[in-house]
Structures are given as C-alpha cells and as structure tokens.
Amino acid sequence: MPLDTSMFEGIRVNRPATERRADGFGSRRSVKKAYQAAWLVNAIRLIDLTTLAGDDTRGKVHRLCAKARNPLASHIREGLDLGNMPLTVGAVCVYPTMVPHAVEALDGSGIPVASVATGFPAGLMPLHLRLAEIEWTVAQGAHEIDIVITREHVLTGNWQALYDEIMAMREACGDAHLKVILATGELGTLSKVYAASMVAMQAGADFIKTSTGKEGVNATLPVSLTMVRALRDYGALTGHKIGFKPAGGIKSAKEALQWQVLMKEELGRPWLEPDLFRFGASSMLGDIERQLEHHVTGRYAASHRHAMS
Ligand SMILES: O=C[C@H](O)COP(=O)(O)O
C-alpha cells in the first residue's frame, strides 16, 4: 500500500504501561506438565534455527540442518508419544554464502532456507549493493530474506526514505518472503518502534522482526508487545495478517513460553503457527530439548549433552 503516515504519526507508546503489560506474560500464567511439553513442542516448529557467525562453515551448516530435520532425540520423541507426527523447525537461517550449503542439506525436507542480507547487521552499504545482495541470495535458493533497515531513517523520522528502501528490497526479493529487521535496540523509543513497524508493513513486509542479535539490546517483551500492537492495528485497518519474529538473546524454554503467551493473548491462535510467527534463535533449541527430556525421564541431562543450538 502507499505510505500513510496518518496510521502512526501522533501515536505515542506509553512505556510504563507497556512494561506493566509485558511483565504479565511471564508471571500470570503457568503452564505445567503435559501442557508445558505441548507448548515447547510447538515452539520447536516456530524456530528459525540460526547460525550467523564469522566461523560458519559448510560442516557447521550441515550439522545445524541435520538438527533442523530431527530436532529431538528419538527417546524424547518416543517419551512424548509423538508417533509419526512430523516435527521440524520453522526454517534454518544463515549468512548468504552459507545458503547453498543449507539448500543442499535440507533438500527434500520442506524446511525453508532463510538468509540475512543487505549488509547485515548494520546495513550501512550503498542501496544498489544491498539490493544486489538480496538478488544474489535469492538466486542461491533462499526462500526467505531477513533485511536490515537504515536506522538513521527512523531516528530522523524520514519515513519516505524508509518506505522507499523497504519497497525496493521487497521488489528485489521476488517470490522470497521478506522479513524486516528493525534493530529496535537502536531506535530510541517505543513510539519509533511502532512507527517503523507500520512503515515496514505498508512497504510490503511479510514479517517484522525485532533484532539482528548483534545489537546491545535485542528482543524484549515490551518491544515485542509494541510491534505486535502495530501488527494488530495494521490488520484491523487493512485486513492483512503480517508475521512477527522476535530474535536475539532468546535462549530458554521459559522465554519460548512467554513469547507464545504474548502471541496467543494479543493476536490469537493463528500467530502460533510458523507462517505467522518465528523465533530467531541460535541457542534455544538445546534448552527446550533439555526440558522435554526432563519431562520424559524425570532427570536433567547436562547441557553439553544438547550442545547443538
Ligand atoms: O536472527 C537471529 C538472531 O541473530 C539470533 O540471535 P541469537 O544468536 O542471540 O539467538
């Protein structure tokens, strides 16, 4: 849709109220035993299993993809009585040059390959190079592209420039899904986070995503609540459902429960499915597997037993 600043200008997000509401997601509800196991199994389906490190190699990506195909050890699957239920992560997320390795390792699995692009994580490269990076990465076989925005456009309130940039990236993606990373830890205020979320959706984002994982402050519940309310308002005004991806620093099974409660309470059941919700996480699956093993066996394994992610 065209840029419509009236959808966010003049909206001020009340931080103390946002923080109070966000506090409740961790404390008001407590899901236990079989219910907790079910929510954790669901969280696995929602993970963009990620490696974004300078020492990524073909071997490391192949190991990650093997885990993506079989996220739980067989004795845990059996203990949970999952039978033949297919269970994989939502996607595997890598740097552009690792995409061919992920495509190769996930062949036939149906698991999409996501890639960051556009000069991730800072994005401070000429626009034509960022667009060329998207096109190159899609040509390597990526199904989903996680782009970063120019934070300066948000900090200076240059909404037209932000809209034009994301729109150009949307076009460069072709059929690939576009996730727009706002890098909220660098945007200053929750009101800016709300406005940037709206611009990203107006410019054609399939998902809005909190963080790269490389900022000083990454995914938090108050920021997520702000983005989710923007999603809700955008849906009410346009009829379009947009996805949400919190990412960066989400490591524990407990957090997997908190974010799912947030989505269920704020947006409802459709946002507990991988087409509308993903966790960007490089190291949460290990803790989820550990908690599920405890549920099944009554014992905790040492965390190094679940070292991979
Ligand atoms: O998009 C995914 C993030 O980079 C993952 O961040 P993390 O390594 O803190 O889990």
UniProtKB/TrEMBL annotation:
Regions that span the bilayer: none
Q: Which gene encodes it?
A: deoC
Biochemical pathway: Carbohydrate degradation; 2-deoxy-D-ribose 1-phosphate degradation; D-glyceraldehyde 3-phosphate and acetaldehyde from 2-deoxy-alpha-D-ribose 1-phosphate: step 2/2
Q: Whose protein is this, by species?
A: Palleronia caenipelagi
> What protein name applies here?
Deoxyribose-phosphate aldolase
SUPFAM superfamilies with a match to the protein in the record: Aldolase
Q: What is its EC number?
A: 4.1.2.4
Q: What class of enzyme is it?
A: lyase
Say if the entry is tagged with keyword Ion transport: no
Q: Name one GO cellular component term.
A: cytoplasm
Q: Which reaction does it catalyse?
A: 2-deoxy-D-ribose 5-phosphate = D-glyceraldehyde 3-phosphate + acetaldehyde
State the Gene Ontology terms under molecular function: deoxyribose-phosphate aldolase activity
The alphabetized UniProt keywords are:
Lyase, Schiff base
Name the InterPro entries on file. Answer: Aldolase_TIM, DeoC, DeoC/FbaB/LacD_aldolase
- Pfam families from the UniProt entry: DeoC
> Which biological process annotations from GO are given for this protein?
carbohydrate catabolic process; deoxyribonucleotide catabolic process
PANTHER family (UniProt xref): DEOXYRIBOSE-PHOSPHATE ALDOLASE
Q: Which family does it belong to?
A: Belongs to the DeoC/FbaB aldolase family. DeoC type 2 subfamily.
Q: What CDD domains does this protein map onto?
A: DeoC
